[in-house]
Design goal:
The protein is α+β, with helices and mostly antiparallel strands and 165 residues long. The chain has three helices and nine strands, in the order H-H-H-E-E-E-E-E-E-E-E-E. The protein folds into two domains: 1-36; 41-162, Peptide methionine sulfoxide reductase (Metal Binding Protein, Guanine Nucleotide Exchange Factor, Chain A). The protein has helices at 2-35, 41-47, 50-57, and strands at residues 76-80, 86-89, 93-94, 102-103, 112-117, 124-129, 135-140, 150-153, 158-162. The strands form two sheets. The protein has a six-stranded antiparallel β-sheet with strand order 3-4-8-7-6-5. It has a three-stranded antiparallel β-sheet with strand order 2-1-9, with no helix packed on it. The protein is globular. Bound molecules: zinc ion (ZN).
Length: 165
């Protein structure tokens, strides 16, 4: 009697083992390709549109008053176009009349990296995504809200996830 149970159990165990052996490998493969960021500029070029590549990876700037998020007023989260990391809440967005979407603070301390940028004969603070290093724009200390900051961001550098209703 005992041995019949033992056989039945080991049979079930084998089926379970087989099922486990197949599913996780498929799952881990798909999460890997979803979450893995490009490591070379060639890989970034393949992942992004030419305009996104120019701005995010080559620190380009979109023409003022042309970006799709300039007048965007929906509630939600602005994310990095390169890697999807949350960057700015719609609550921190304000109209700076400068031609680019503007925010007065990052959604969480450290999601944005600041670097001194001395190009174009100006001393500015460049902002990049803390996760993938994508160029977002610049931050200035002339903001009109209580943070005193104005994160001036290219629409091309960001995506948007509407708040759940
Ligand atoms: Zn990013």
């Amino acid at each position: 009697m005992k041995s019949t149970f033992a056989i039945a159990y080991s049979f079930l165990f084998l089926i379970a083992l087989q099922a486990c052996g197949q599913n996780p490998s498929v799952a881990s493969q798909s999460t890997k390709s979803m979450s893995q960021l490009p490591t070379t500029e060639a890989e970034w070029k393949a992942k992004l549109s030419p305009e996104e590549f120019y701005i995010l990876r080559q620190k380009g700037t979109e023409q003022p008053f042309t970006g799709k998020f300039l007048m965007h007023k929906e509630k939600g989260m602005y994310t990095c176009r390169g890697c999807g990391a949350p960057l700015f809440s719609s609550d921190s967005k304000f109209d700076a009349h400068c031609g680019w979407p503007s925010f007065d603070k990052e959604v969480k301390k450290g999601v944005i990296k600041e670097t001194v940028d001395n190009t174009l004969g100006m001393r500015r603070i460049e902002i990049t995504c803390g996760k993938c290093g994508g160029h977002l724009g610049h931050v200035f200390d002339d903001g009109p809200t209580d943070t005193g900051l104005r994160y001036c961001v290219n629409s091309v550098s960001i995506g948007f996830e509407p708040a759940k209703k």
